Structures
1.
Amino acid sequence: MSAIDEQQMKDWWAEGDTPVRNDSHVSYLVDARSTLLSMCRHFLMARKYIYVTCWGITPLMKLVRGRDHRAGPDGSSEQEALLAELRAEGLQEAEIDFWCTHDLTVQAVLGHAVSKGVEVKALIWDCPELFSHYNPKEAEKQLRQV
């Protein structure tokens, strides 16, 4: 990085704030199916931390459903193809076992991450006027349980 680039970095970052992390990956996703599927895969692969900010997401919301979760009976070519895809994405066998044996809700997947020692933080918006199904205080209570 040039001296000018370093100076620009210093100018926009708040002094004393948490430093920029070079080992992170941020993705902006729009489509619900692909967003939730990607979130689940990345949550399961996390090793250090997960920071979530998303309004309207509830702890019992399923991240993965239907054929994305179970493509067919165990041993079927469809299910084996799904498992091969998960391996190719970087999921380890423990995470694949979790994928196959649990409902992949926000709470279950984040709880699994916590059980592996991953730091999980969630920013929950208090916006029930936008989402009638959403109770942020209940969501916080459910997520704190894990």
Note: The mean pLDDT is 84.
2.
Amino acid sequence: MRAIIHVDMDAFYASVEQRDNSSLKDKPVIVGGHAQRGVVLAASYEVRPFGVRSAMPMARALKLAPHAIVVPPRFSAYAEASEQVFAIFERYTPLVEPLSLDEAFLDVSASVGLFGAPADIARRIRAETTAELDLPASAGIAGVKFVAKIASDLAKPNGQREVRVEDTVAFLAALPLSRLWGVGPKTQEELNRAGLNTIGDVATCDVSWLETSLGSRGRHLWELARGEDPREVVPDRLAKSVGAEDTFEEDLTSLDLLRSHVHSQALRVGRRLRRAGIQGRVVQLKLKFSDFRVMTRRTTLHSPTDDGQAVYRAALELLQRAHSGRPVRLTGVSVESFDALAAQQLGLFSAQPRSTKLNATLDRIADRFGSKAVTTADLAPSRAEATGTSRSDGPDR
């Protein structure tokens, strides 16, 4: 029987700021940028009772909570904390699927013999993130990913909730339709008109009617409502692609700024590839413009790589060809078409490639002193942090 844990760090950016600045402890903190044009990147739990939420325009947030303390984002600090958090996850299972910097699915089915029941493992992980990193986390435990995610949401802040397999249908039944993955406002309105208001209503609905009304999505929603979610937890080494992307607080048009973000993303992808022991042949660049249209461009390398600089060079060529001066709100770099990392056959007078030695050295430095201990000139904090971004490092599917 599968045991899935969804761990989600609580108000991650704000919690890091409160940890690193004692004067912010227990204060209403908003992590965000420009008071008029920016958005809320994170809101501490002290400010949430006033209605402030992530992704809310800063202007509205400050009207709701004029007494809030606004701090600018420090993405290098969040990336550093994220690596430490994921290192704790990996103590308990190699099956860790990152969704973003601050949340992941863990399959602990094979870990119970070593570490105890799934709920005990979740408690240990949360205790260690608190004791070692001074960062709170919430967790959901279930037999499937969908239910584990809902359980962790309902456990916030700083709690955990377990949904036993036999209780899954009853747990879901009373929840609103908005909790179903894939149900947006339009779909919810259509279901409401048909008299369906809860997940339980969908679970007991005639599936053929759902398929007629919603197409293939109808059966998918019906299965989720019944707690059926066969998706596996897919770590980087088994994912179809490994990627990193940044959503900008303000749209960017400067090729120099876009280049810096793409460089950072490529280096992050390279490090994740090496940690997973895989190399990829195909590099993809993703651009989302201010009108939310998405463009992707791909290129195939001559040989597979896990070198972030090689990924960057390929992505930069794609960026230079795709850049037209249109405002960009997101960039992403991903690598796919994987080969397992195998020992290279060296000739009699061959040496290990310089990039391999350099990357191994940089990885050791990062493991000991943090991911930002050594970086390239264009990724200096003043550049990256002046443009305000939110990051997602989950594998692309």
Note: The CA atoms of residues 259 and 316 lie 7 Å apart.
